[in-house]
Amino acid sequence: MQRHSLFATMSLGLFAGAATTTALAESTPLEEQLKELESFQVIAHRGASGHAPESTMAAYELAHEWGVDYLELDAQLTADGELVVFHDDAIDRTSDGEGKINDFTLEELKALDTGTWFNVANADKSDDSFEGAKILTLDELFERFGHDARYYIETKSPQLNPGLEEALVETLEEYEMVENGHVLVQSFEQDSLLKVQALNDDIPLIQLVWYSPSEEDASRLVEWTGVTPGPEEITDEDFQAVSDYAVGMGTNFIYDGREVIDADFIRQANENGLPVHVYTINETDEMERLMEMGANGLFTNYPDRLIELVE
Ligand code: G3P
Ligand code: CA
User: Fold this and answer.
1) Which residues make beta-bridge pairs with 85?
2) Does ligand 1 lie within 6 Å of residue 189's CB atom?
3) Cα-to-centroid distance, 137 and ligand 1 (Å)
4) Does 147 participate in catalysis according to the annotation?
5) b/e per residue 209-230 (b: at least 16 CB within 10 A)
6) Roughly what angle, to the nearest 10 degrees, separates helices 263-271 and 2-10?
7) pLDDT in the model for residue 152
8) List of domains in the chain
9) Could you tell me if the CB of 91 is within 6 A of ligand 1?
10) Which stretch of DSSP H or E encloses residue 213?
11) Which of 26, 100, 151, 257 is the most interior residue, by most CB within 10 Å?
């Protein structure tokens, strides 16, 4: 039911204009990609990062092999302006180095081992081949999978990565990812998304949100950057304000054991033309519950579990 209302809204919102002018014209790859957002999307969070070290080629190889809809990644800039695939602001947790990622050149980062930590933390999934895994550049990921994959790219920590949007758009254009329908750009920072849009307004954008209790009044939920009101207070106009520039939303589901969104939130977003992708869902029962609630896609470290449910 909820997905049906999304179909109606999105079909009208995204394709009605084109249909009246070129009734029989074939869809472009970008239009096809947007149309496919009407279906449930399996999004491999940092690759199949429950099975292999996050953001490494091994994690992306596995997710790609399993046929996920999107490879999710966080893009950041090195000290010498190279785009790398890395989540944290610091390299400490997932490498054998220490310090802020932006303080290192690509050559220095390439000397790190970003795989062994996974073997130590996950004895049951340890694999000798993960040892010595190198930090990935976005170029390397694109060269490996090219147009044979779709990429769900986050502009991570935009304040710490000045120039990130420019570098990202340049790379997306170089690899002809946008017009061929291979990329979504996501961010928690609305300004970062608007910067991307100003550079290339064809790039489909996803507004990330993170809902948690207000510090002043824990009974009220608020959004981290204030991009929307909390889910209990959000209106059609608030969703429309997002759909003015974005093609979807990515949200958390649980904060400190408390569910922060419900089926009504998803339905209302859908009615305003916004599919809702929920992060980061790793347990099968939670996946099933969100699918029942009408979620339009899930970010997961275990795409194998989700694919089993979807098929
Ligand atoms: O991008 C969706 C989700 O990945 C956001 O959280 O911290 O894992 O980047 P994070
Ligand atoms: Ca992310």
Assistant:
1) 75, 136
2) no
3) 18
4) no
5) bbbbbeeeeeeebbbeeebbeb
6) 20
7) 99
8) 1-39 (no CATH), 41-91+134-310 (3.20.20.190)
9) no
10) strand 211-213
11) 151
